[in-house]
Amino acid sequence: MLESINARTGMAHGASWADSTAQDIDLAARQAQSVASDFARATPGLRAELLRSMGQRLLSAREALVALADRETGLGLPRLNGELDRTVYQLEQFALALDQGAVHLLLDEPAVAGAAPVGRPRMTRIRVPLGPVAVFAASNFPFAFSVAGGDTASALAAGCPVIVKAHPAHPALSLALAEQVQAAVAQCGLPAAVFQLVQGAGIAVGVRLVQAPAVAAVAFTGSLQAGRALADLAAARSRPIPFFGELGSVNPLIVLPSALASGAAERAAALAQSITLGAGQFCTSPGVILVPQGEPGDGFVHALAGQLSQLQPHGMLTAGIRRNFESGVDAWRHAGGAQVLAGLEGNAAATPAATLVQVSAADYLRQPALQHEVFGPAALVVRTQAMNEMLEVLAAIGGTLTATIWGIDGDAAQVTEEVHALVHRATEVAGRVLFAGVPTGVAVTAAQQHGGPYPASTAPATTSVGLAAMDRFLRPVALQDAPDWLIQRY
Amino acid sequence: MLESINARTGMAHGASWADSTAQDIDLAARQAQSVASDFARATPGLRAELLRSMGQRLLSAREALVALADRETGLGLPRLNGELDRTVYQLEQFALALDQGAVHLLLDEPAVAGAAPVGRPRMTRIRVPLGPVAVFAASNFPFAFSVAGGDTASALAAGCPVIVKAHPAHPALSLALAEQVQAAVAQCGLPAAVFQLVQGAGIAVGVRLVQAPAVAAVAFTGSLQAGRALADLAAARSRPIPFFGELGSVNPLIVLPSALASGAAERAAALAQSITLGAGQFCTSPGVILVPQGEPGDGFVHALAGQLSQLQPHGMLTAGIRRNFESGVDAWRHAGGAQVLAGLEGNAAATPAATLVQVSAADYLRQPALQHEVFGPAALVVRTQAMNEMLEVLAAIGGTLTATIWGIDGDAAQVTEEVHALVHRATEVAGRVLFAGVPTGVAVTAAQQHGGPYPASTAPATTSVGLAAMDRFLRPVALQDAPDWLIQRY
């Protein structure tokens, strides 16, 4: 059974809802499949209209939606209003991509006369929708990665019906958002099964959805444990389906000596803000900060600890997330060689304490328990003696959504081979490599890549943010000797 | 233990080789990983040079290689010389793509001033190699999909070291090809671990290779049973890796009434050639022919059976493939409602008989055993009463590499809604849809797509033929606020 919990008080509010049954889920999947061919053949223009209609409805219902989101998540009105704007912008960007018309027709090659291998028929490369997509909503972005968020928008843009599995931490908001999407679907004259919602407090709903024969792909944002379990189910089906899971991420940030030479105080302040943004509940929250041993590094770490001590993160999304955070930072505090620089106490308070713990690179590397993500307003400072240790720490972290390197000069002549090796290593472990700024905040654009090597993503060649998110739900088809009228339809 | 078997006599010839040990395989994977970063940073120009050097060496050694291939596969000199040409052309096409420079840098977006979501930093989308790729060679294309074939070429082009698991049906050829590739690697001044070969008669070698922690991706061409088993192992690793498996395919060919109106005899002759090409040992061999009930269809089927009866396919690749073929056609012959039109006998002969069996669509749909691929020179004619039965047969076949539709008019005004539905269904089940010609013969070009919905492929969004085959081994990375000198390196 699902209840709407006030994130600030922990008290249930209003109605409760029964979990979707196995029959509900199978029916939703079959209905989605029954409309998949028609929706695939809907014009890109109609799909753009659907996305824009969704955006308009979110804007019109903003006040009620944001209030509901605030009650169920405790993320605060400024953040939630900004996130709603971002969600509407995201819908509009996919609509624009559809308008521009490069979604389905990729390449049209004329026939070449002569014998093979040089000679060949006319070949036209197009992309077709995969079919019904199951979207698992995230808890930490109740608009941008939930019912009407990036996964839903990109799947609908691609021409795939969507079945959202609502996140149990914001059930009332999920239903309110689903009503808006359903109204947009109806307004565009599309069948209702183009968008459906299922819900449940336990794992049974998600398991059934991933196993439903009619489901063609899954998009998931959540924990490593849940994501891996569902990915394994998707791979074990008699017809395996792609599982696009965005799981945990450590997001290392490397401070090179040149970044300590000037502006270190401003950098420390920006980093403290990034670590505590949304109480650290961002998949791109910087979790490990690599700082060279020595005086300039000491000063930077001291400034960072001071900034963090002055910040009071708001409450966390759920009691469960809070418990995991406390046990995660406890493990850091009690690790060999650990030194607590901020957040000594706070376990009992209503809100979590911004926490900074420091270890040497040697201590970090010999304790695998330190290499896991701690989801919340905390970071681990790892002090390194040489560039080689930075490479080793990056390798130990393995897959991550982002890696940030501060202090690389814009002047190529000053770049050493060591720096080249560091940048290369960063591209080996991360989906996005930053050379300025902080990793929180992910632009919705064509070049974006949100998804790194496992375990950051179960499908590292794909992104869940940005226009390329659509690529996940489209499959290339080569048309050979196709008539002109057919090619013109793509 | 591996032996070189003469495909025509079944007798062992010359030396035998021990299977690679678990230690050999682990060492190969670690050595590949140890050179992966350096090879990833090799210039695209150097990789193009490697591919061209491989091609030159294949041409220089043509006579010996083709003779060896003919002894171990029995495919005949004309076919094998043509396949060698195609393999060299394939290497050259990837080299050209590297020359043209669009492999790594995908998109460079300038910063946009202002607040998010509109404002954003400079974002540059690049692609980086995945790391060591395990390539499982196919038996049926000893050049084009073996040691120096498409998977190896596309992985090296992408900047990934390759470990080939040789196909046990042509071990002597595999070693001779590997020597040529190794010489090319040395000539280009690259470390030897950029290309390695392992071998074995049993499944242990492949299992160990897929499970080796240092392997980052697998490319496989082979049977559904072996491919699915290895795909499951790849998904079950502690760090799952992508498994690009090209498995079985039925390749339906649909004859619409308008294709029977004229030129039916020529079409029947072309189809008979396609069914028996290479003794039917092509993954794109047409296995199910859909023909409308009635007189014109009867005439076409009669002509096809007549053509097939006059063709004598050459011997098959291995005794095991021959056994599977005979048991497959036996199941067809004894299915309910089956009528044998060609290939009544032949089980005991040295070479297989070209076989044609006919059933009604109703009989086909009610007998799932008929819906599996039979690898060899045989096709099943399915007689349909209405377009709707054609849609149902395509749905029953499910994933396939190709679907061919004969008889669609070039004039859009004459195209019915039924034809639109048929074309759409074909794009739903196939990776390539043909509107003329036969599906055997796969052009190496940018628009090509060789890989359809499961079970045709374990990764239906990817292709194993054509320039997009490289995409399998590259992972996108977004660079945020990167300095110019770095972007210029991609």
TrEMBL record, chains A, B:
Residues 15-417 form the Aldehyde dehydrogenase domain. It comes from the Bacteria. Coiled coil: none annotated. Keywords: Oxidoreductase. InterPro entries: Ald_DH/histidinol_DH, Ald_DH_C, Ald_DH_N, Aldehyde_DH_dom, Aldehyde_DH_Superfamily, ALDH_KGSADH. CDD domains: ALDH_KGSADH. This is Aldehyde dehydrogenase (NADP(+)). The lineage of its organism: Bacteria, Pseudomonadati, Pseudomonadota, Betaproteobacteria, Burkholderiales.
